[in-house]
Design a protein that fits this description.
The complex is a heterodimer of chains A (about 110) and B (about 120).
Chain A lengths: L2 E4 L4 E4 L4 E3 L1 E4 L5 E7 L5 E7 L5 E4 L2 E4 L9 E3 L8 E8 L7 E2 L3 E6 L1
Parallel strand pairs in A: 2-12
Antiparallel strand pairs in A: 1-4, 3-9, 5-6, 5-10, 7-8, 8-9, 10-11, 10-12
Chain B lengths: L4 E3 L2 E4 L5 E6 L6 E8 L3 E9 L2 E5 L6 E5 L5 E5 L8 E8 L10 E2 L3 E5 L1
Parallel strand pairs in B: 2-11
Antiparallel strand pairs in B: 1-3, 3-8, 4-5, 4-9, 5-6, 7-8, 9-10, 9-11
Classes of the chains: A mainly beta (about 110), B mainly beta (about 120).
């Protein structure tokens, strides 16, 4: 079946550090891949997405590239800010699918 | 603000009881999804409705049921509650019933505590 595996958190970084959160997936066909972010006390918001192999999604300084050969969609940011502290979820939705399938989430904590 | 409204925001009840969670989707969205978020299981898809009809089922227990009304709001009914049902329940909506690239818009969730 379809599944998403994310690196375990929490991830603790200093401001301006480089961020990588690993995400790999298992799916049939060619799924679309997403990163959602959940700030404290809020619902999930779409951060970025990629719909086919080699696509790069980007938003707010975050990037992720759809790598079909490694079934990965790692999230990166060159210089994190305190305001990036949140829980990040990797997700997929396959071609025939309806709902998003989420990973368990990775908590990021950035200190000044 | 995603445009998805969930009530109540917090709910405390006892084991064996029944509760109803309500969701109003974004204006124009026909599809509603319910998710359960717990510390050990993460975000689990429960069920989806599209324009009043059940579209997809995930890991929803038989004690749980949902429906979508003609005005497109949805309710999730949880009965015979157990301690393990304590979780954050999210509703999300989208325009289309399926399709791989569509974005889901999430509400802020209803936190259920079963004592």
């Amino acid at each position: 079946g379809n599944s998403v595996t994310q690196m375990e958190g929490p991830v603790t970084l200093s401001e301006e550090a480089f961020l990588t959160i690993n995400c790999t997936y298992t799916a049939t066909g060619y799924p679309s891949l997403f990163w959602y972010v959940q700030y404290p006390g809020e619902g999930l918001q779409l951060l970025l997405k990629a719909t086919k192999a080699d696509d790069k999604g980007s938003n707010k300084g975050f990037e992720a590239t759809y790598r079909k050969e490694t079934t990965s969609f790692h999230l990166e940011k060159g210089s994190v800010q305190v305001s990036d502290s949140a829980v990040y979820f990797c997700a997929l939705r396959n071609q025939a699918g309806t709902a998003l399938i989420f990973g368990k989430g990775t908590t990021l904590s950035v200190s000044s | 603000d995603s445009g998805v409204t969930q009530t109540p925001k917090h709910l405390i009840t006892a084991t064996g009881q029944r509760v109803t969670l309500r969701c109003s989707p974004r204006s124009g969205d026909l599809s509603v999804y319910w998710y359960q978020q717990s510390l050990d299981q993460g975000l689990q898809f429960l069920i989806q409705y599209y324009n009043g009809e059940e579209r997809a089922k995930g890991n929803i227990l038989e004690r749980f049921s949902a429906q979508q009304f003609p005005d497109l709001h949805s309710e999730l009914n949880l009965s015979s509650l157990e301690l393990g049902d304590s979780a954050l329940y999210f509703c999300a909506s989208s325009v289309a019933p399926s399709g791989s690239a569509g974005e889901l818009f999430f509400g802020e969730g209803s936190r259920l505590t079963v004592l």
